[in-house]
Amino acid sequence: MTRLHVEQPGAAALVEDLGRPGLAHLGVATSGALDRGALALANRLVGNPDGAAGLELVLGGFRARFEGEAWFAVTGAWGPVSLDGHPVPPYASARARDGAVLEIGTAVRGIRYVLAVRGGIAATAVLGSRSRDTLAGLGPEPVVAGQDLAIGAEPAASVPVVDQDVAFPPPAGAVTLALLAGPRADWFTDAAGAALFESPWRLSEQADRIGARLVGPVLERRRTGELASEATVPGSMQVAGDGQPTILLADRPVTGGYPVIAIVAPGSLDAVAQLRPGQEVRFRHA
Questions:
Q1: In the chain, what are the domain boundaries?
Q2: What is the pLDDT of residue 162?
Q3: CA 133 vs CA 50, 129, 170, 252: distances in Å
Q4: What are the DSSP calls for 148-181, one per residue?
Q5: CA 189 to CA 192: how far, in whole Å?
Q6: Exposure string over 239-248, b if 16+ CB within 10 A, otherwise e
Q7: I need a surface site. Which of 61, 85, 162, 246 has the fewest CB within 10 A?
Q8: What residues are paired with 96 via a beta bridge?
Q9: Secondary structure element (H or E) that encloses residue 42, with its range
Q10: Fold of 175-285
Q11: What are the E-state strand segments in the chain?
Q12: What is the pLDDT of residues 217-240, one digit of tens each?
């Protein structure tokens, strides 16, 4: 069986697939890759099903040795990738020989790489998924140096020929996200609703797989009373008492106690996954 021997995991390396949908009634979040499009693309590049488990790597600094031959692809964030010291094109499949060393350097665009290996990461599934849920502690433990990751059996599909022109790095400047109306938008003043769409925001350093906190104008409430816990969905933008919003992500709690002013549209969530601290964010109506 082919294995990937991890010599250096970087800032954070997690096994992720497309998550555990449909279990919120049990208190279990969806979890899964934050940049779902990047995972699906990386898998397609090596002939895997879209939902095969890969590695989500924050910022880079990753090094691993292939024990056995394997096809692999790196998508998501944009930065230097090499195999035995030779550059590997972004968003393209490549073949690793037995003993080859893969290095993924610090990302220069975006923040989360996705590494897919043909056959997928053969971690133990929990509640139907191989994803790590960082809030609940479900799924495979974070990858550590010295760990051997088993690779699954070859899929039936062949490795496709894909033109490299499909590669588009995450934007370095302002990112515009589409917003849907939130269930508690009426708890906020008209001025708050206008500020949400008219003002620039920036991603704070308080951002992880649970949520991404934004910094900008104070979103004032029209109603100031307590709110009973309510269900949340990925992209829910809840506003804490200080008037600053947080976008809840894949590992979010399934209920929250702050009013949700808006919801990031599903088509914009992958872009949130690649935001870097300090990057400008603007909103538009979905």
A1: 3-166, 175-285
A2: 64
A3: 19, 10, 24, 9
A4: EEEB-PPPSSPPPP--GGG--PPPSS-EEEEEEE
A5: 5
A6: beeeebbbbb
A7: 85
A8: 70
A9: helix 36-45
A10: Cyclophilin (2.40.100)
A11: 3-8, 12-16, 54-58, 62-67, 70-78, 81-83, 86-87, 93-96, 101-104, 109-117, 148-150, 175-181, 201-207, 211-215, 230-231, 236-239, 245-248, 255-256, 260-264, 280-285
A12: 999 999 988 888 899 999 999 999
- Give the tokens for residue 202: 């920036």
Residue 215 CB coordination number (10 Å): 16
- Which amino acid makes up residue 108? V
Distance, CA of 246 to CA of 173 (rounded, Å): 20
pTM listed for this prediction = 0.95
Q: Which amino acid is residue 15, in one-letter code?
A: V
Amino acid symbol at 280: E
